[in-house]
Specification:
Strand order of the largest sheet: 1-2-3-4-5-6-7-8-9
Oligomer: single chain
Distance between the termini: 47 Å
Shape: elongated
C-alpha cells in the first residue's frame, strides 16, 4: 500500500510531466467531445533504519462523449452527452536494495456529461463541465469537473484560465486505487 497526498506546490516539485488536451466537434445540434489527460509524478519518503521509498505514478485518461446541444438563450447553451472514459494507471514503489512492487491497471468507465457555456460580455465567456460514471461497471465511481473564464483574442483564438478536478475510485479483488488530481488550468483554444 502506498498513500500519496500532495499539495499543489509539492506537485510542481515532484511533477515529471503533464498534459491536457481537449477537443469538440459540432454539426447542427450534435456534438462530439474528447479530452486526454496525462500526468507523471514521483516522490520519495524516509523509512525506518535509514531506508527510503521511491514512488512513481503515471496516469492517462481518455474521455470520449457525444450528445446534443441546446441553445438556452442567445448568451448560453447546454450540451448533454454520454460516452466512455479509458483509464491507464501505472504505480511503482521501490525501496532500493530491498524490495519493489508495481501495478498496471487499465479499465473503461461509462460516463454522462453536461457542459454549459455562458457569454458574459462580447469577448468574455465562461464554460462549466461536469461528468460522472463508473457505477461499478469499470471503476466504483469516477467524476470530473472543470470551469474556465475565456477571453476571445481574435475571431478564432481564445485564452482560458480555470480549475479542474479528476477523480476515480477503482477496486478489483485486492487491488484498490483511489486517485484524484486537482489544480489550475491555463489554456488556449483554436476554432476552425
Amino acid at each position: 500500500t502506498a498513500h500519496v497526498n500532495t499539495s499543489f506546490s509539492d506537485v510542481l516539485d515532484n511533477l515529471d510531466a503533464a498534459a491536457f488536451l481537449d477537443g469538440t466537434a459540432r454539426k447542427g445540434h450534435y456534438v462530439l467531445h474528447g479530452d486526454l489527460s496525462y500526468a507523471s509524478t514521483s516522490d520519495k519518503a524516509a523509512l525506518p533504519m535509514g531506508l527510503s521509498a521511491h514512488a512513481k505514478v503515471k496516469q492517462t485518461s481518455l474521455t470520449l462523449t457525444g450528445g446534443r446541444n441546446w441553445m438556452l438563450n442567445p448568451q448560453s447553451s447546454l450540451d448533454l452527452m454520454a460516452g466512455l472514459r479509458l483509464w491507464q494507471i501505472k504505480a511503482e514503489v521501490n525501496v532500493p536494495g530491498l524490495a519493489s512492487a508495481q501495478s498496471n491497471t487499465s479499465f473503461v468507465d461509462p460516463v454522462i456529461a453536461a457542459r454549459w457555456r455562458y457569454d458574459i460580455a462580447p469577448r468574455w465567456s465562461t464554460l462549466f463541465y461536469a461528468d460522472i460514471g463508473g457505477l461499478n461497471m469499470g471503476s466504483k465511481f469516477t467524476w470530473q469537473v472543470h470551469g474556465s473564464v475565456n477571453y476571445q483574442v481574435k475571431e478564432n483564438i481564445y485564452v482560458s484560465l480555470g480549475y479542474r478536478h479528476l477523480s476515480v475510485d477503482y477496486r478489483d479483488g485486492g487491488k484498490q486505487l483511489d486517485f484524484s488530481q486537482s489544480g489550475p488550468i491555463i489554456g488556449a483554444t483554436f476554432r476552425f
